[in-house]
Amino acid sequence: MKKAIFTALLFSGSVISAIAQNSVNVNQVVSADQDFNKQVSRKGIKDGFLSVADAEGMVFRPNAIKITDFYSSIDKQPGKLNGEPKFARISANGDLGVTAGPYVYQNGKTDDDKIYGDYVSIWRKDLASGRLKLLFNVGEQHPEPEQEATIDFKEPDLTKQKAPSKDPFAGKDIIMATDKTLNHSLELSTLAGYKEFLSPEARYYFPGFEPITGTDKILKFLANEAINITGQTVSAGRSSSNDLAYSYGTARIKKGNVVNNYNYVRVWEIDANHRWNLLVEIFSTVEN
């Protein structure tokens, strides 16, 4: 009798787990981003960031630093920051997501005091609370947009849901190797390297320019701006469902005759052929 009850409870638990898992949708990461922006508006920039930061969450000021370390070390960050997600993806298991969109920062009372740009945020589920926490937040500045960004929220492929790997480091190693391969390819040829790795839906965020979407437009931008990149991988991570991943590192970029140092963050998605493609890349300028 006890065995029958245990079996029934085990089956019931499995069903509940499956239902919970299948409830993953892109609105979860969109809501996390929107709630973050509300916290920033209500509490201010410093407390807004601290309220959603992952324990390992990072920003670039200008070099990589933990969100908690940076914002705990300052009294207050002045000004108002308003952002709005226009792009979002979440993994099938719901443990990793990405959002991106325009922001406006204002530290004054007139329109001349407004600074425009775009941000990319990566979110990771906190196992203790079940909430998505901010793992990366990177922004790039550009002139005021000429038109409003379109919304691109895509639901995850729930057929890719799976139990977490027993070897959590294997996923990281694969993404690290992929990121290093792209960096090596970029050293040989920027255009050929990106052409090999870009997703058809790729989004490219380069300081001073509005986001560029689609392989053809990105390659045309790189050719027109005469951009050459030398990159160094720092670290990476992957969703437990093996469909979404991230990497970050440093880059030295030659644009025409000008050379600058940058940090980069990349978001990767896996395709039907089990190949990792570059979905999002954003660069953050480092002072020379």
Question: Mind explaining what this structure looks like?
Answer:
A hairpin with a 6-residue loop joins strand 9 and strand 10. The protein contains 7 helices and 14 strands. The protein has helices at 2-22, 27-43, 45-52, 67-72, 168-188, 190-197, 215-225; strands at residues 53-60, 64-66, 80-83, 87-90, 96-106, 114-125, 132-141, 152-153, 198-205, 212-213, 227-238, 244-255, 258-270, 276-286. The termini are far apart.
Per DSSP, what share of the residues sits in E-state strands of 2 or more residues? 35-45%
Low-confidence stretches: 1-21
The CATH architecture of the largest domain can be given as: Roll
Please write the CATH class name of the largest domain: Alpha Beta
The CA-CA distance between the termini, in Å, is: 73 Å
Largest sheet: 8 strands, mixed
Oligomer state of the chains in this structure:
single chain
Can you lay out the helices and strands and say which pair or pack?
Layout: H1 2-22, H2 27-43, H3 45-52, E1 53-60, E2 64-66, H4 67-72, E3 80-83, E4 87-90, E5 96-106, E6 114-125, E7 132-141, E8 152-153, H5 168-188, H6 190-197, E9 198-205, E10 212-213, H7 215-225, E11 227-238, E12 244-255, E13 258-270, E14 276-286
Parallel strand pairs: 1-7, 4-8, 9-14
Antiparallel strand pairs: 1-2, 3-5, 4-5, 5-6, 6-7, 9-10, 11-12, 12-13, 13-14
Helix pairs in contact: 2-3, 5-6, 6-7
